[in-house]
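Q: what does this look like with D-mannonic acid bound?
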Amino acid sequence: MSIDRAEVIVTSPDRNFVTLKLTTADGVTGLGDATLNGRELAVVSYLKDHVVPLLIGRDESRIEDTWQFLYRGAYWRRGPVTMAAIAAVDMALWDIKGKTANMPVYQLLGGASRRGLLAYGHASGKTLDELFDSIRSHQEQGYRAIRVQTGVPGLKSIYGIASNATYEANKGVRYDHEPAQRGALPHEEDWDTRSYLRHIPTVFEAVRNEFGPELPLLHDAHHRLTPIQAARLGKSLEPYDLFWLEDCTPAENQEALRLVRRHTTTPLAIGEIFNTVWDYQQIIREQLIDYVRSAVTHTGGITHLKKVLDYASQYQIKSGMHGPTDISPVGMAAAMHLGLAIHNFGIQEYMKHGEKTDAVFEQSFTWQDGYLHPGDRPGLGVELDVDGAGRYPYVQAYLPYNRLHDGTVHDW
Ligand code: CS2
Ligand code: MG
C-alpha cells in the first residue's frame, strides 16, 4: 500500500486546530494533530510546502523509517514547528496501522497496562470563594485530581485565570481554559514574582483546610521563577503535599533544576515546551524531575515520546502529558493510547474541549469516575468532519506576554 493523499486541515470551532489527514491507496485514513498554539500557520506551511510532497507514494507501514527520514532528512532538526509537523505524520501513520490491523493503537504499543488514565482538571478563581466553587464543580464532574490556579492580589491578569477581556468575549460564561486570545495582536499581562510567592502558599493552606489532605493538588508556575525563587516556592508548598509543581523555572538551562532539587522535595513536572529527548537528557539522568510533561503533538509523535518515556522509566520518572484545549482531540487520543500502554504512566491533563470542537472531531474516548480511556475502536478512534471543519475558518490568535512593573519582558 502507499500514501495516496495528504491534506492539511485548519479549523477554528472554539479555537484554532491544525490536522493532517493521510489517505492510503486503499482508502484507509489517518489523522495527526499539528496544532502549535499561536503559531499554527507556521506548521501548516511546513507540512504543506515541505512535508506533504515527501509523503505521497510512501509505504505508510514504515513509521520509524518515515520518522527518521523526516527528522534527519530535513537536516535542520528539533524545535516546536518541525517536531509538531513530524508528530502529525507519526500519529496519522499509527492511526492507519491500527485501522489496517483492526486494533486500537494502544494494542499495537503493547496493550493496556491499566484499566484507565487518572486525569486532572483545571480549577481556578480570582478569589478563594471562586476557586472553591471551581474545585467543587470539577469534583462533581468526576475529577479525582485538580490543578489549582488563582489570581494574585495586585496583578490585573495571570495565567490560568480568565482575564476580563475573555469574560466580556464570552459574555460572562467562565471560559478560563483558553489562554490564546483571538485578535490581531497579543495581550500584555503584568507580573510580580514577590506578590505571587507571598500569596500562593496561603492559597494552598486554605484549599487543604477546606478540602482535606487526600485530594491530589497540582500547580503550574508557568516558567516564571528564577531557580532560587522556584526552590523557595517548592519549599513553602511542602506542608500542602502537592502532587506536582509544574514549570517552576524555564528549563532551557537544565542545570537550573539542581538548585531547586537541593532545597525542596515537592515533586517537579517539566517539559510541555520541550520537543525532543535531548531537552530532557540531563534532567532525567540526574533525577531532577518526577514527571515528563511533553505532549505527543509537540514531541515528534507517539514514536518519539515513547522513547522519552522509556528513557524516563529507567529513573522511575513518570508521564504527565500536556492536555490543554490547544492539544486537539486527535492529539489527546494519541496521548491516551500511549498513556494506557506504557508502564510509567503518572497522570493525564484533561481540559474539556468546547461543544463546537466536539462536533467537528468525532471521538470514542470515555471519561468515567475520574479515569479516561481511549476506547477500542481501531486506530486512534477520532474522525474529523471535514465539511464541518470548513465552516470554521482560521482566526488569528496569540498567547499573551508579560511585562514587569519596570517594563521588562518576562516569561509568560
Ligand atoms: C499550560 C497550558 O496546561 C498547561 O499546563 O501550561 O495551558 C499552556 O499555557 C498552553 O498550552 C499554551 O498554549
Ligand atoms: Mg503548564
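The chain has two domains: 2-104, 109-377. Confidence is low (pLDDT under 50) at residues 170-175.
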